[in-house]
Each structure stands twice: as structure tokens, then as C-alpha cells.
Design a protein that fits this description.
The chain is α/β, with parallel strands linked by helices. The protein has a single domain, classed as NAD(P)-binding Rossmann-like Domain (Rossmann fold, 3-Layer(aba) Sandwich), CATH 3.40.50.720. About 45% of the residues lie in helices and about 15% in strands. It has seven helices and seven strands; from the N terminus they run βαβαβαβαβαβααβ. It has a seven-stranded parallel sheet, sandwiched between helices. Helix 3 (about 65-80) packs parallel to helix 4. The radius of gyration is 17 Å and the shape is globular.
């Protein structure tokens, strides 16, 4: 258990983010949940409270850097240190050949999947360093490491995200431990959009990824490590 520790999870209104927030709360963390949709966050918060956990919601748009700054100020004023930062929020965009990528949509994908992540790390770096055992886990995709046809925009954003995390791991020299987590094929809304003909019953649930993530926080990992979650975790 991690009583007294603080975690922040982005994209926490559904899917892997929601499952992770609930798993962290069940393991004693106070969890700050962020996402754009307040209603979804409230549902997750209610489930956490009903299960005896502790959570705070912060509806916000991560592409608004000022909102990130205000959240960081509020958290620093109340808690001071951040023990776990889970960077899960992402945008898929349209799956299309590279020559057909819409520049405006590509900009939105890169803004959320890369620029906002860099802004989050910058905003919470001092609070992570104030923790005795800070961990950052970024949720990535296999296409960030292995390019695939039609996935150019999303894959490019995840490749950049992975590099960002790896660089931060090197810069903190283990003072803040960083993991790059590839959840693999998981039953989420984003997966359903990407593979509309796929039978979701054949996929592992988000709770499997959440359990692995919480296990990493509990048991530790090599900073900068890329970890793939298989069907059973």
C-alpha cells in the first residue's frame, strides 16, 4: 500500500486512465484525475470514493498550457510533492497515408501528444523532485517504436513522446524514475476507433494495464525502461 502518496493521472475519465486512477486509489494513493470531460471524471471519482479511496478531479484541456500551470500551482500549494505522474492522455487522429495527413489535425495531435506532455513535465518537475521516490510513467504505443502504414501522424507523436521521456530519464539520473509503458492491444474507445472490425472480447481490459502500472510503482523499474504489457499483464 502507498498511504499518503499523491498521484496525478491524465486522461482519467475512461479507459486505461480511469482504471489506473481506481487502481492507484485502491493502493492508498490520493489521486488527482484530469480530463476534458467533467462528467466522466465525476463517475470515476464516485467509484473511487465508494470503494473507500480518495481522489480529486480537475477537469481541464491539456492543450491549454495556462491550465496546466494553474493545476501545478494548486497542487503545490496543497501537497508540495508529487509521487507519481501518469501521462496517459492522447489523441489518435485520422489513420491515413502520410501524403494525406491534414496539417491542422496533425498539429492538434502533436500539441496534445507531445507539447502538452512536455508542459506537464516542466510544470511538475519540482514537485516530483520534492518526492522521496518519484515516478513518471508515460503511456505510449508500439507504433512509436515500429512505424506502420497509415499510422504516421499518431506514430510520429508517440516516437517524439518516447524520446521526450527517455531524455527526461537521463536528465534526472534516477532522481525521478521514468518508464515508457506500451499497453499493447487493450479494450479501449481509442482501440475501437482504430480497429472497428475487431472483437473487443478478444482484448484484455484496461484493468490489466492498470494492475501492471501499479505493480511498477510498487516494485520499481529501471529508469528509461520501455515496458510492454501482454494479454495477462
Amino acid at each position: 500500500m502507498s498511504e499518503g502518496k499523491l498521484a496525478l493521472v491524465t486522461g482519467a475519465s475512461r479507459g486505461i486512465g480511469a482504471a489506473t486512477a481506481e487502481a492507484l486509489a485502491a493502493n492508498g494513493y490520493h489521486v488527482v484525475l484530469t480530463a476534458r470531460t467533467a462528467a466522466g471524471l465525476e463517475e470515476v471519482e464516485n467509484r473511487i470514493h465508494d470503494a473507500g479511496g480518495s481522489a480529486t478531479i480537475a477537469p481541464m484541456d491539456l492543450t491549454d498550457g495556462d491550465s496546466i500551470g494553474r493545476l501545478a500551482t494548486a497542487i503545490a500549494g496543497r501537497w508540495g510533492a508529487l509521487d507519481a505522474l501518469v501521462l496517459n492522455a492522447a489523441m489518435l487522429g485520422t489513420l491515413t497515408p502520410v501524403p494525406h495527413i491534414d496539417p491542422k489535425e496533425f498539429s492538434r495531435v502533436m500539441t496534445l501528444n507531445v507539447t502538452a506532455q512536455a508542459t506537464m513535465i516542466a510544470a511538475f518537475d519540482s514537485m516530483l523532485r520534492a518526492s522521496k521516490d518519484a515516478r513518471v510513467i508515460g503511456v505510449t504505443s508500439s507504433v512509436g517504436a515500429t512505424p506502420r502504414a497509415y499510422w504516421g501522424a499518431y506514430g510520429a507523436s508517440k516516437a517524439a513522446f518516447d524520446t521526450l521521456l527517455g531524455s527526461y530519464a537521463d536528465e534526472t539520473s534516477g532522481r525521478v524514475k521514468v518508464a515508457i509503458l506500451d499497453p499493447g492491444a487493450t479494450r479501449t474507445a481509442m482501440r475501437a476507433r482504430a480497429y472497428p472490425g475487431e472483437d473487443p472480447a478478444t482484448l484484455k481490459g484496461p484493468e490489466v494495464v492498470a494492475a501492471r502500472l501499479v505493480g511498477l510503482l510498487r516494485d520499481g523499474f529501471e529508469s528509461g525502461e520501455r515496458i510492454v504489457v501482454n494479454q495477462t499483464g
